[in-house]
């Protein structure tokens, strides 16, 4: 039965069947080695008794009822648990560093403690690297290690110290006769003293003392990178790194645009304002046309949409396709069709091109200049963005029969242009000679204390602006 289940020996052309070679013999098939993932699935042994006692105590503490605890009791409990976390992380780092020195991970078929931590305890790559780096740091800085063993040092603080006072810096200090124990004591006193927030500056000062020349000069731009990940719904995720000078330039540009875009009642977070400023920066340069030519064509936004979908003011999901292949709603295409140098290919019911960026759909320069004189900037109530940050918006969309005229043109910044295409409306009030803005529910946006004690709107006290040019005939 057992022999029948084995793989039969291979026969030669003459019919002779060779005897199988014993494992390890020359010419024998190599025995398959377990993969790191398989090795990591080895059933673990119970932890030592002292660690087991700690786990049992923490499990008991985790089940405590907190409903009747006072604020002071909750804070005291949090403070004690924070020390427990520091103790556990410091001890884990110490054990992992020792295990790395002894190549203990080889017992489980792994090459080091970083893959062991990932395979056995589910740590991420950065988490595993941080634990090992902290353990090595505590070995070369015994004073700091003693404080960590008392639960007085967080994992983040160990990361700060290790990033600045690297093993190379410490070795340079040892070779130069620097009093490293004194430096170790200074770092520990900073962490456990009254000014732990100065840890970065203190460590940098020590590094400069040990090695005044610093690391060899490198190109500061060599570490720059920007990764834009396109999600399935067309949104983008950005991840990157800039050198000090480059980051300062980008921050200055974005902050200038974000500050200019602030208006009354702006509830956006700082992150949202920065993201809007980045899009606005792209809009400005695309509109100026000063970007490098790519394949004999200026950078542009292309959107393909069926004519009937573009004409639908209610919005059709996934009706338009951008140049990258991402599908967006018809509202996005309608907004893009308002202004800017945009390549549009509008298809009719037979899928034949009806219009490829017709010039009369764009607001010409003389009408835009007139709108800038009339509006002065974004006409959305409460916004004070200047004219150079605004798009020329068709109040009645071109596809709906709206004319490209001064009466049908309004200046809107990028943020409010988007909102007008998603429910908000603007309307020219000929009696008052100004624009009015309404929410999606139809209520008007009013600035200032414009209601009486009953909450009813006060009479409109707006006075008509004087004419731009006085009539000299009178």
Automatic annotation (TrEMBL):
<dbReference type="InterPro" id="IPR003615">
    <property type="entry name" value="HNH_nuc"/>
</dbReference>
<feature type="region of interest" description="Disordered">
    <location>
        <begin position="440"/>
        <end position="474"/>
    </location>
</feature>
<feature type="region of interest" description="Disordered">
    <location>
        <begin position="1"/>
        <end position="49"/>
    </location>
</feature>
<feature type="domain" description="HNH nuclease">
    <location>
        <begin position="366"/>
        <end position="418"/>
    </location>
</feature>
<dbReference type="GO" id="GO:0008270">
    <property type="term" value="F:zinc ion binding"/>
</dbReference>
<feature type="compositionally biased region" description="Basic and acidic residues">
    <location>
        <begin position="453"/>
        <end position="474"/>
    </location>
</feature>
<dbReference type="GO" id="GO:0003676">
    <property type="term" value="F:nucleic acid binding"/>
</dbReference>
<dbReference type="Pfam" id="PF01844">
    <property type="entry name" value="HNH"/>
</dbReference>
<protein>
    <recommendedName>
        <fullName>HNH nuclease domain-containing protein</fullName>
    </recommendedName>
</protein>
<dbReference type="InterPro" id="IPR003870">
    <property type="entry name" value="DUF222"/>
</dbReference>
<dbReference type="GO" id="GO:0004519">
    <property type="term" value="F:endonuclease activity"/>
</dbReference>
<dbReference type="InterPro" id="IPR002711">
    <property type="entry name" value="HNH"/>
</dbReference>
<dbReference type="Pfam" id="PF02720">
    <property type="entry name" value="DUF222"/>
</dbReference>
<comment type="similarity">
    <text>Belongs to the Rv1128c/1148c/1588c/1702c/1945/3466 family.</text>
</comment>
């Amino acid at each position: 039965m057992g022999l029948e289940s084995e793989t039969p020996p291979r026969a030669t052309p003459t019919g002779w069947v060779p005897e199988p070679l014993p494992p390890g013999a020359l010419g024998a098939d190599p025995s398959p080695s377990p993969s790191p993932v398989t090795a990591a699935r080895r059933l673990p042994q119970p932890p030592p008794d002292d660690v087991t006692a700690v786990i049992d105590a923490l499990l008991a503490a985790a089940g405590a009822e907190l409903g009747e605890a006072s604020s002071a009791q909750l804070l005291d409990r949090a403070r004690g648990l924070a020390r427990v976390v520091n103790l556990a992380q410091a001890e884990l780092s110490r054990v992992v560093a020792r295990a790395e020195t002894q190549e203990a991970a080889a017992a489980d078929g792994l090459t080091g403690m970083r893959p062991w931590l990932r395979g056995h305890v589910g740590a991420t790559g950065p988490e595993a690297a941080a634990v090992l780096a902290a353990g090595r740091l505590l070995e070369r800085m015994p004073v700091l290690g003693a404080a960590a063993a008392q639960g007085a040092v967080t994992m983040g603080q160990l990361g700060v110290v290790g990033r600045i006072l690297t093993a190379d810096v410490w070795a340079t200090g040892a070779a130069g006769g620097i009093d490293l124990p004194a430096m170790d004591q200074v770092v520990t006193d900073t962490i456990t003293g009254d000014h732990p927030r100065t840890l970065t500056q203190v460590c940098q000062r020590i590094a400069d003392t040990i090695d005044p020349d610093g690391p060899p000069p490198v190109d500061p731009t060599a570490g720059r990178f920007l990764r834009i990940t396109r999600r399935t719904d067309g949104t983008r995720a950005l991840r990157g790194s800039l050198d000090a000078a480059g980051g300062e330039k980008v921050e200055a540009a974005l902050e200038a645009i974000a500050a200019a875009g602030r208006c009354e009642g702006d509830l956006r977070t700082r992150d949202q304002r920065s993201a809007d400023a980045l899009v606005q920066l792209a809009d400005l340069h695309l509109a100026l046309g000063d970007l490098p030519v790519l394949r004999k064509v200026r950078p542009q936004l292309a959107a393909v949409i069926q004519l009937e979908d573009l004409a639908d003011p209610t919005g059709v999901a996934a009706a338009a396709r951008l140049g990258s292949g991402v599908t967006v709603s018809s509202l996005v295409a309608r907004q893009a069709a308002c202004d800017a140098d945009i390549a549009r290919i509008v298809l009719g019911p037979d899928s034949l091109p009806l219009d490829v960026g017709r010039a009369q759909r764009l607001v010409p320069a003389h009408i835009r200049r007139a709108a800038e004189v009339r509006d002065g900037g974004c006409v959305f109530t409460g916004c004070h963005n200047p004219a150079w940050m605004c798009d020329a918006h068709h109040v009645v969309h071109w596809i709906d029969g709206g004319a490209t005229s001064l009466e049908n043109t309004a200046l809107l910044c990028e943020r409010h242009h988007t909102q007008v295409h998603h429910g908000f409306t603007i309307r020219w009030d000929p009696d008052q000679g100004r624009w009015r803005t309404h929410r999606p529910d139809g209520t008007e946006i009013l600035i200032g204390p414009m209601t009486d004690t009953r909450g009813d709107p006060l009479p409109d006290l707006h006075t008509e602006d004087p004419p731009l040019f006085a009539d000299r005939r009178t």
